Batch of 2 targets.
Target 1
Amino acid sequence: MDNMNITSAQYVADITSENNSGIQATIDGTEMSVPLDPANRHYAEIMRQVEAGTLVVAEAD
Amino acid sequence: MSKARGLADLGNVYDDGALSNRSKIINGAMVIDQRNAGASVAVSGSGSAYSTDRWSGFNSSDGAFTLQQVTDAPTGFTHSLKFTTTTADASLGSTQHVGLRQMIEGYNVSDLAFGSSDAKTVTVSFWVKSSLTGAFGGALLNAAENRSFPFSYTINSADTWEYKTVTITGDTTGSWSTGNSTGFRLTFGLGVGSSYSGTAGAWTSSAYTYSVTGAVSVIGTLNATWQITGVQLEVGDTATPFEHPRSYSDELARCQRYFERRGTDVANWEFISDAGQLTSATNYQCAVRFNEQMRAPPTMSVTGTVSNLKVIRASVVINVTGITASDNANGRTLLLYGTCASSGGAAGEQTRMQTAVPGTWVNFDAEL
C-alpha cells in the first residue's frame, strides 16, 4: 500500500481546446504535472483520494 | 558450479522455454540509478521512494531508513542496493511494514499464465548481505495484493555476501494483469507487522502479505544494514546464472520505459528539448520525444530551480518561470509550455530548452 501526500491539485486546461488536459498537483512536496490517464500512478492515486472524499481537484483557471 | 551441473541447468532452462531474456526483473544488478546517481535517499514516515531504477523502498513504520546504490558487491557484480536503518522501530504495529520492491509490468510476465491452470513455476535468485543474521522474508504478490506467496531465506553469516534461491509454484487463481499495469510485485520485507506476514511456501489470499511470520526486522535495529544485487526472476524451478544485460545502454533503455530525466549533473549546456517556439514575448512551447515508448503517459516534474531551465531564442538566454506538460497522452511525446522572462521575441520565433546548472532536471515518471 502506498500513501501519497497530496496537498494541492488543480485541473489544467489544454492550451488550445480549453478542455482539461492534466492536473497540476503537489505530491510528497513536489509539484507535478499529471496526465489524465488511469494508467498513470499519480492520477490513479488522485482519483482514489477524490473518491475517498479526502481530496478535491480544483477547477482550471 | 560444475560444468556438468551448468549443462544440466541449461537443459532445464531450455525445457522451460527461455535461453535469453530470462529475467523478468529490470536492473537486477542495480547498475542504473538515474534519479540519484549514487546519492542516499531517505525514506521516513508513511511513503515510498525510488533508489536504483525500478526499485522502491516503502515505509509505514515509526522508523526511517536510507537506500543507496553502492559499489560493494559480490564477485561478478559492480553495484548493490544498500538499506540502512537510521531510526529504529523495534515494536512494529500489526499493519506496519517496511521493505523493498520491484513491480513488474504485466506484459513482461504474461507468458507465465498466472491466474490460470497453466500457471508456470518461477524461481527468484539474488545475492544478499546483512549486518543481521537469521530468517528473512519476502513475497511475490499480484497488483491488488490479495494473492501472495511469502518466502523465507536465511542469512547465515553477518556482513557476508550469500546467494539465495526461492522457487515459487505458479498461482492458478487470482487476478493477474497481463497488460501495461502491474503484473507482479516482488517484495523483500525488512520489517513487517504480524497482520501482513504469513506462512512461507504457500499461496494466500490474505491481503498485503509482504513477508513471513517471525522474519528478521531490519528496521528494528539502529544502523542495521541489508544489501541486495543480482536479482533474477525466471520461469522454471531452476535458478540459472545471473543474466547480465547485453550492454549498459540496453539496461538503461529498459529502465527508461518507466523513468527518464533530462538535464545535467555538470556545468555543461544540456538539452531538455531541441524544438520549440515562443507563443508570446513571455510564453513558450517546447516538444519532447522520449527515448523509449513509456509504459503510460508520464508525470512531469522538475528537480532543482525552475529558473535554471532556459528557453533560448537565437543566442538570447531566457529564464523559465513556469512549466507545465500538455499533449501527454501516448507515452511517446509531450509538450512543455509555460511562462518565461521577457524574451524580447515574438510569437512564432524558434526556441529550445536547455540548462547548464548541475542538479537541474526535468523528470518523466511512468513507474508502476
Target 2
Amino acid sequence: MNNPPDVTQDSKEYEEYAHGVQKHVRGYLIVGATLLAFTMITVALSYVDFGAILSSLFHTNLTSTQGRKANIAVAVLVATFKAGLVGAIFMHLAAEKRLIYRILIFTGFFVLGLFWLTLLAWYDFPIFR
Amino acid sequence: MEIPYTVSTRPDTGLWNAKIGIWLFLASEVMLFGGLFSAYIFLRIDAAPGMWPHGVLNVPVGTFNTCVLIMSSVTVVLAWAALKMRRYRAYWWYMLATISCGIIFLVVKLAYEWPQKYDHFGIYIKSEALGKYEQYLGNAYAAEKELPPRLEITGHLHNPAALTDPNIKEYEVALDPLNADPTNPSMDRPHFLPLTVTHKIATIEKADVERATMFLPTHNAYFASYFTITGLHGLHVLAGVIVFIYMWLPVSKKVYQRNPEHLANRVEVSGLFWHFVDLIWIFVFPLFYLL
Amino acid sequence: MDASASVEIHHEPHGHDAAHEHHELGFWRKYIFSTDHKVIGIQYGLCGMVFLFFGFCLMMMMRWQLAYPGQAMPVIGKWLPHIFGPESMPDGKMTPNFYNSLGAMHGTIMIFLGVVPLAFAAFGNFVVPLQIGAPDMTFPKVNAASFWAFAVGGVVMSMSFFVPGGAAKGGWTSYVPLAAFDDTGPGRNPVFNGQTLWLIGFIFLITSSLLGAVNFITTIIQLRAKGLTWMRLPFFVWAQFVTAFLLLLAFPPLEAAIIMQLMDRLAHTSFFLPAGLVVNGAPVSISGGGNPLLWQHLFWFLGHPEVYVLILPAFGIVAEILANNSRKPLWGYKSLVFSVLVIGFLSFIVWAHHMWLTGMGSAVSAFFQTTTLLISIPSVIILSAFFISLWGGSIRFTVPMLFATAFLPMFGIGGLTGIPLAFNSADLYLHDTYYVIAHFHYIVAPGTIFGLFAGIYHWFPKATGRKMNDFWGKVHFWPTLVCMNVIFLPMFLQGMAGMHRRWYDGGQGWGVANEHTIWGLTGFQWNHPISWAAWIMGLAQIPFIINFFWCIKHGEKVNDNPWEATTLEWTAPSPPPHGNFVQTPVAYRGPYEYSLPGRERDFTMQSEPVEPAERTRRKPAAEPVLA
C-alpha cells in the first residue's frame, strides 16, 4: 500500500488516497472468493488417487505410499499458492518495501536450512559424493 | 516525549515503526511453526508402516473452520480499508465480524473437534496377535492390495472402566466402519463425510494389546503433533481475538478521534498477525485433515 | 565537550497527547514498571549481575566437590542443606544428583540469566538509543514487557531449586530421553519439579528475548539520528543489531522443541521418545515413534547462534573502548561490519558441529565442518582488526582499557582452541571432555565477561554522573585475570588427557585422571589449584561489588564526557533525562574521529559539524540526511 499522506496534509489529497484504497477493496473480495474456492479444490483433490493416475500415465505401478506422496505434493502446492495470495494481497507484500522483503528472504533461507540440513543429517543423502 | 515515526513514515525506509516490528515478529513466528512443522515431517517420515493414521479427523468441520478463518481474513482487511477511508461504522461492523469468526473457529475446535477425539478409542494390537484379530484388521487383504498394514482397532469404548481397573481383562469396542468391514474396497481410502461408529462390538483381550488409549496426544505421534500444532495455533487465534476486541471497544475509538491513522496502523499490524495465523492454518488443514 | 556544536532542532509531527508526558510519574511507574530504556537497561543490568553472582556461587560449590570429592564442605556445608533441601547435601557432602543440578543450572543461569541479559539487554537498552541519538526505543511498553517476562522466567528458574527433587539435572542442554523422564514419578510433583520448571521458565526467557530483539532491530533501523548513516554507526550498534537478529530467528525453534518436551513430560507424548524405551529397568508406556535427535537438532539450531549472542556484544563494547583509549579510529571499520554480518549469517548453518558423535554421515558432516571452519575467518578478521587498531595508538590504561586489552589474547586462546573441535575426527576424542569446557569458558569468561566489566567501568559515568574508583578497579582486574588463566588453562590438559565433563567426582574414580601426570600433576590433582583459583577469583570480585555500589552515591563526580569519547551518548547529560537529549543530535561524521590532524583536541565528537577547512573529496559538506 502506498504511503498515506501525513495527517496534517490537505484533505483533498487525502480523499484521493481514500479513493485509491477503495479500488483495492474489490481485489480483497476477489482474493477472498478465490481462497474459498481453492479450499474446496484442495479438499476435492485430496480424494483423487494421484497414485493411480500417475501409474497409468507412466505405465508403472506406484505403491499406495508413493501415491500418497503425490497427493502431498499437490496439496502443498495448492496451499503454497493460497498462502502466496494471502501474503501478496492481504498482507500487502506485493507492494511492500525492500526492507521487509530482505527480512523475509533471510527468514525463508534459515527455515529452509533448518528443514533441509536436518533432513540431510537424518538420512545422509549422498549429495556430495 | 514523542517517539518518531510511530504514525508517519521515515523517509529512507518508507516505513513506520510498528510495521517493521510486526514483520520481525512474524519472521520469528515462521521459525517457531517451522520448528513444529519440521517435527511433524520427521515424525511422519519415521513412522513405521501402518502407524500414521489417515482420515481420523472430521473433514467437513475442518473445511468449515478453514472457510471461517479465510472469511475473517477478508473482513479484517476490509476493516482496515474502512479505517483508511475514515468510515468508522463500517470498520466497527467488519471488526465485529472478524472477532465473531475467530470465536466461532475456537468454539468449533474446542467444543466439538477436540472432545470428539477424546471420546474416540484406539487399540494397537501386539504384532504377535495380529492374526487373531484378522477379522477386524484385514491385513491379508491389505497386503494383497499393497496397502499399508492395519495395526489398530478403533471405535467407541463401551466399558471405560477397563482403562483403570486391572481386574477387567478385555475391552469392548463398538467398531469404526474400517474395522467392522476391513475387506470392503470403499474402506481403502478415507472418506469426505465422516463415517459413524457401527453397532458391531468387538471384544479385545488386554493381553493382546500393545497400547490402548483415547485419541489423546499420548496415543501416537500423529495426535501428539495434531494437538500440539492446533493447540499453539489456537492460542494464537485467541491472542488475535483479544487484541481485536480491544481495538473494537470504545477505548480505541478515542485513538481514532485523536489520530485516525494511528488506529489504522494498529489495525493493519494486528491484521498482519491475523493473516499469518490464517496462513499457518492453510498449511495445517491439508497436512493433518487431508493427507 | 564542544558545546558550541550547532545542532539542528528536528521537528516531528506532534501528536496531541503531549499532556501525558508532563505529569510526574509515581514511584512504581518511574522505577519499577518504567518504560524508559535507561531504567529498563539498569534493571536488566542489576538482575543480570545478581544472576551472574549466583551462577558463580554454584560453580564455587561444584569446585569443592571436584577438588575434594565426597568430603563435607567446610563452614557453609552445614547450612546448605537448609537452603537446598536435605537430599542435596546430607552432612555437607554433595550428592551426585545435586552436583548435576549445580552443573545444569550454572550453565543455564550464566548464559540465559546472566550474560545475555547483561550483554544484550542491559548494555543494549541503555547505550544503543543514546548512541544513535534516539529519545528511547521504538516500543517502550514492549521493552518493559520484555524485562518483566525475563524477571518471571528468572523467578521460575530460581524457584526450581526449592521444589522436591531440586533443580534440573539434565545439563543445560536437557537432552532427551533423560530430560523427559527426570524428576517424574513418586515424590515428584507433575508440574512443580526441576525439569518442568526449567522448561516453563525458559519459555518466559525466550519471549523476553524475542520482544527485545524486535525492539532493538526496529529502533536501530528507524530512530538513527539525522546524518547517522549505517556506515557511521558505532561498531557496538552493529554488533547489537546482528545479535538481535540471531535471537529473533534462532530462539523460536528451541521454543518449539521446549513445547514438545513439555508435551512429552506433561501429556505423555513421544515427540522425542523412540519405541521400546526402557527406563529404570522397566519398559515405559509411551506410543514411541519419536526421535531424541530431533531435540538435539532443534536445541543446537539455537545453541550455536546463542554463543555468538554471547560474544558479539562484547566485541562491540571492546571496540568502543579500544578506540577511545588508544585515541585512534578503529582499524578496518568496513571489514569489521562485513565480518559481523557474515558471522551472523553463517552462525545459522554450523549447528551440527555440536553433534559430531550422533552418527551423522560423512557428507553432511563435511558440510558442517566446512561452514564451521569458514566462520572462524570473520572472527579472526575482527580480532586482528582490534589488535591492529592498537598499533601506533596513544594508549592509556584506564580500568576499562585493562579489561578490553586483556580480552584480546583471552578471546584469541578461546577462539583458536575451538578449531580442533571443528573437525569431527578430532572431536571424537575431545567431545565432552574438559578441553571443551576450557575452550568455551575462555571465550565467555575472560572473553565476554571481561568485555562486560570493561563496559560497566566505561559507561558507569554516563549512567550515574560519577566514576568508579580506579585503584579498586585494578585490584579487581589483576587477580581476576591471573585466576582465570589458572582455572582454565590446565583444563585443556585435563581434557586432552581424557577427563570427561560432568563427572561428579572430578575424575577421582577414573583411570585417565589418575594414571599419568601432566606438568607434574595428575588430571585429578589439577582440580586442586583450579578450585583454589576459582575461590580466590570469587574473593577478587568483592572489591568490584563494593566499588560499584559505593560509587553510585559517593564516586568521584565527573562531567558529561569524562573519557573524552566521540560517540553520541557522550553529548547527553550524565545521567540522561527522560528523552535523553536536550536537543536531538545530528551526526556529521564517523564514530571514531580521534586525533584528527590540525585539531586542537585529540577527539572530535560525532555531532560536531564539518568545517569548511575539513571538507575533502571524501568528506564533502553535504547536508546530513536521514539514510
